[in-house]
Amino acid sequence: MARYRLITFFSLFLFFSFEAFAESGKPRWKELTLEQQKILEPLGELWDGMELARKKKWLGVAKRYPKMNPIEQQRVQSQMQSWQSLTAEQRKQARERFKKLEQLPVQKRQEIKQRWYEHEQLPHDSKRSSKSRLRLAASRSA
Question: What's the pTM?
C-alpha cells in the first residue's frame, strides 16, 4: 500500500513538474494573435527564448499599444528594435544598469532623466560626445 502511494505521489509530482516546465515557455510566438505579433514584431526572433516575466511585460505593452498616441507607439517600436539589436551580454548589462538606477534616490534619478531629455533634444552630431558624458555621470552615480 505504501509503495502504491509512493508511486502515485511520484507520478503526480512528475506530471505537475512537467506541466509547470511546459508552461514556462508560453506563449510561444506562434500562439500570439496577429495583432500582438504585428506590435511585437521587432522581438519576434527573441520571443521563444524569453523568460515568462519578460513575455508578460511585453504582452502588457502590446495590450496598451493601441491606446497610445502615434509618438508613443513610435517610441515603443524604436525601443524594441534597439533591444533586439543588442547582444545577450549587452541586454544583461542594460538590465543591471537599470537595476542600479532604480536604487538611486528619486532626486538623482530625476537629474539623470533630465540630462537624458536634454541629450535627446541635441542635434545628431552633438549626441555622440554627450552620450559619453551621460554614461560617465550615470556610472558615477551608481
Answer: 0.58
